[in-house]
Design goal:
By secondary structure, this protein is mainly alpha-helical. It has two domains: about 5-130; about 135-165. It has helices at about 5-30, 30-40, 45, 55-65, 65-80, 90-105, 110-120, 120-130, 135-150, 155-165. The two termini are about 40 Å apart.
Length: about 180
């Protein structure tokens, strides 16, 4: 299932790849101003979703200096806005528009991401049926795996289940008296 979290990670990875490609081009053409804006110290400004004054200033400079990065940032915000859609039909239309825009951007990483999301669109749109993700069950599974690795296996299954309940918050020893 494609959760909003995994889509956001894929999107941030694509944006970072575009940033690195444009940074390499800027260094090759000796464009110091663009290279300074795309340097790794400022990459986190590109990855944030919060609208701050500093982020707006950096994005405005990028819009003036580099169209590819600016287009990638607009696509990022457009994709994240899909999750604010009221219903599945509106989300489907917005996702379709985003995929067309990503493929039309002619940026290889975004074209690849657009094709990937096209293949996974049904899973993405399933989120809008109940607006539930698998994050909680994935978290519990990770806790169980970590507990199993820490213990190097338990001989008694009942004790292992007790430890799972204890670590996952289902059994709180402070509450039982």
């Amino acid at each position: 299932m494609e959760t909003p979290r995994t889509i956001k990670k894929s999107l941030n990875d694509a944006i970072d790849t575009v940033r690195k490609e444009e940074l390499a081009k800027a260094r090759k053409t000796e464009d110091a101003e663009l290279a300074d804006l795309l340097h790794c110290k400022k990459k986190f400004i590109l990855m944030q979703n919060k609208q701050t004054k500093r982020r707006k200033n950096v994005l405005q400079k990028l819009a003036d200096l580099n169209e590819t990065i600016y287009r990638a940032m607009l696509l990022k915000e457009q994709l994240l806005a899909i999750y604010t859609s009221q219903n599945r039909a509106a989300a489907r239309n917005a996702l379709r528009e985003w995929i067309v825009a990503a493929i039309g951007s002619r940026t290889s990483v975004l074209v690849e991401l657009g094709r990937k999301l096209f293949r996974k669109r049904h899973f993405i749109l399933n989120y809008f049926i109940c607006r539930i993700t698998t994050a909680i069950s994935e978290g519990i599974n990770n806790k169980i795996k970590r507990l199993k690795r820490m213990a190097y296996g338990y001989k008694d299954v009942a004790y292992f289940l007790l430890k799972i309940h204890q670590h996952c918050g289902l059994l709180n020893p402070r509450l039982s008296t």
